Amino acid sequence: MIHYLRFSALFATLLWTHHGFALDVSGKVQAGIYSAESPNTWLDKGTGVTRFDTSGIHVQQAIIQINQSVTPSTDIQADASYYPDGDQHLGFTQFQIRYKPLISGNVKWRARAGFFYPAMSLENVDKGWLSPYTYTQSAINSWLGEELRVAGAEFTLYRPGRAARSPWSWELHAAAYKGNDPLGTVLTWRGFALHDRQSLHHERLEFAAYPSVTDSNGIWHPSWVEPFSELDAKWGIYIGAHLDYQRQAKLRYYYYDNLANPNAVNHQRLYAWRTRFHSLAFQHNISSSTRIIAQWMLGDTLMGERFVYTDFQAFYAMISHKAGQHRFSARGDVFDVREDDIFPNDQNNSHGSALTANWRYNLSEHWQLGAEYSLVSSRADNRVQLNEAIRATQQQMLLVLEYNW
Fold first, then answer.
1. What are the tens digits of pLDDT across the range 233-279?
2. Please, which residues have CB within 8 angstroms of residue 183's CB and are 6 or more apart in sequence?
3. What CA–CA distances, in Å, run from 252 to 162, 244, 279?
């Protein structure tokens, strides 16, 4: 209840403060019919890697975004979501204050502070950090939506190409933050997954109760994590660089390191995980109607005195084509987690691949109809602890009606 009160109070503040400046409220609701296969989803403490594991009707996304202008150089943005599944149903996914001064010169700067995503993704560029291409997001960005958010500040230097009469534009980003110490928990013990559900602020993220994890004679960790917890009072950092060529190509590189103390643990038995990774995203517009997008991630994570250590990597490539009011998108994913730690009975090797095909049709300015098919093959060695087959193949079909305003 206290989180709902905080949610209401913050929204009221956004709506009523600085009412003399522009207030923009927008949103999106997606609801549809889904058909999926077991194993059970991790949202119900299963070992499946898709959001759905049965058939039915579901509210997939309900998002509201508020942009409040405070001064000509400052604005506030808040994204809130409702989900019928998961531990918490209503809450914020981002809240940030952005400052962009009006300055002359070719090289400019801006800054933001709050609770937000780094701009790593070229896939999740729609309202509410969703994808305009597919409903089921790539393994990389599904994981970022689950476990990564920064509570801190980012500083950006940038040069628009137009200001320098150049076809090239660039940006340099640097940030310091707290509150992302358990990053890597779900990725290690469940592996990568593919879905569109973003963890809410203060939410508890569930996963299967593997005996090697939950047993008091083993690692003795709960079968859940609060991914945005601060456990060691240390700051994390990330740096990033964007390079754009006209409206034809984009390249984004990020290095993320939460600099966590892997021996820090709280009263809930949640550990800090030292997690660091590289992310490289690329987009090329083949024509005004067709584009390709790809992203690669490589990193590692450590918990305790090498109680758990894994290397992870993932890659996806997508092609998307727009024809009139239709958009067709297809994506392939591969992902892998490899362990090298001191507990052989805590099996954390996992890998898999996925294919996703999506069609969307704009019925009108506000209404959109879409359909999607996903095929995900995965192997997770720790499924044997729950007497399940190590390998699983899951199919998921969605028929979605969306309303935007």
1. 999 999 999 999 998 999 999 999 999 999 999 999 999 999 999 99
2. 147, 148, 227, 258, 260, 273, 275, 301
3. 19, 9, 8
